[in-house]
Amino acid sequence: MKEEFEDVFHEEEYDELLNRWEDMLKNKKKYFFDVFEFENIIDYYIDTDKANNALKAITLASEQHPSSIIIQLKKAQVLIDKGQSNQALKIIDQLEMIESSNIDIYLIKGAALNALNRYSEAEKAFDLAVSLAFEEKVDVLQIVASSFEQIGKYQVSLKYLLEAYKSEPDNLLLLFDIGYSYEKLGQIKKSIGYYLRYLDREPFSENAWYNLGILYTKAEMFEKAVEAYEFALAINPEFSLAYFNLANAYSNNEDYLKAIDNYKEYLNYDGVNVEVLTYIGDCYESLKDYEQADHYYNDAIKESEFFADAHFGKANIQFQLGNYNESLELVKNAIKIDDLNAEYHFLLGSIYTELKSHDKACDSYKTAYNTEPTEIDFVLALNESYIKIKEYSKAKDVLMNYLKDHKKDAVIYFRLAGCFLWLNDNEKALDAFENGLRVDSSGFEEINVIFPDALINEEYRKLADSYKIKDLN
Q: Does 23 reside within a domain?
């Protein structure tokens, strides 16, 4: 009870101080405030993002306490917040000559230098602050790490966090921040390791379990992701985002019924969401329950007529049912809303292929491919489409371009061999075919997709036999 009373008392004092300050400004009076009081007033305006008000307080504080280093440091801090870091540095340089052992001087100097993109100089200033810190060393290291984290310099931030962790291995906040930094650096396994350490000591942290679920999803460890989200929900059954991510994890793990249940649970907490309605439709579509899928896509469109994915979902259902003309109109609706989505153009190409409109199919596949040239489905579809319209050189070029960064894809070599056969270059065709056999001989029949009956040729049979492929019939 005593602690609660003291907290209330201090809060009342703080309110009284701010009221006195506001009264002075409103009535154009002049009151005296000590340095500590000014510091609190300035911090209030800094914390509430009122930099101009903070500068007013600093101006009067400088008049009443012209030799106060604390007030000048506050001024430098506010100038950084206002984007005037060069002016802040001028103040810092003067203060450094007066009090060269003040940690705050170097912390603010480092922040100013970071704001000016002078990162190596900032590190030197921060390192000096760390060297001056003793009992407060971990706090200083955390401040420095935060400064670099805010500007996306996670590798530098991590250096300071790991140094702090060496000093305080029981500091849970450090474990959390280190895990976050590794995640931002794309080092997912290391990030998972630090979150697990955190959870060993704080097993009832719903946020840590939730973050761990996100990491497992990124690592495509979907069963582990499911476990993590379920732990988060066991701790807090009203954690709506955990239901959403759990549903995604179940969907990625192809457990569509559980995914649907959790998407619906999410809707119970957060209300109707057009994206989630579409995800439910996707799940029903994957289960081949096209009636339910169409129902949820329609619900999504009722909520937002311009949600392209729902139109695309309906188009995909009609395509699966063989209703190509209906599918064509629906996917065109999706493309009108979002003409940059490669999947929409790929479906359009597939529809035109079924309708035997090969020139239009090729144009659609080309659009999808140009948007995502490393997507293997787009590469193969465009390659086949060029073959259908007898553009053999272009069909070959698509595969050659893909091979630049994917030299271990046997299917591409086998298809490339077929392209060379169409171009009457048997020598290159044999080379490509053999390259495919070296990488993975099991898919050799892909050559027939591009050049039917290629394997009837005796040269190809002999080459295949040399790689001990017996069943060519």
A: no
Q: How far is residue 263 CA from its own chain's centroid?
A: 21
445, part of any domain: yes
pTM for the whole structure: 0.78
Single out the residue of 202, 197, 242, 248 nearest to residue 222, CA to CA: 248
Instruction: Name every residue whose Cβ is closer than 8 Å to that of residue 44 and which is 6 or more positions away in sequence.
Output: 18
Which H helix or E strand runs over 71?
Answer: helix 69-81
- Number of domains present in the structure of the chain: 1
**Could you list the residue range(s) of the whole structural domain that residue 437 is in?**
396-473
Which one-letter amino acid corresponds to residue 27? N
Q: Which residue has the tokens 């069963």?
A: 223
Cα distances (Å, whole numbers) of residue 454 to 81, 440, 461: 70, 18, 9
Kindly report, residue by residue over 333-362, the tens digit of the pLDDT.
999 999 999 999 999 999 999 999 999 999
Q: Answer yes or no: are the C-beta atoms of 233 and 266 closer than 8 Å.
A: no
The structure tokens listed for 192 are 């998972």
**How many C-beta atoms lie closer than 10 Å to residue 460's C-beta?**
22
Distance between the two ends of the chain, CA-based, in angstroms? Answer: 89
Q: Which residues contact 248 (CB under 8 A, 6 or more apart)?
A: 217, 259, 279
Alpha helices for 287-373 (secondary structure H) = 290-303, 308-320, 324-337, 342-354, 358-371
Structural tokens at position 85: 């870091």
CA dihedral 147, 149, 151, 153 (to 10 degrees): 110
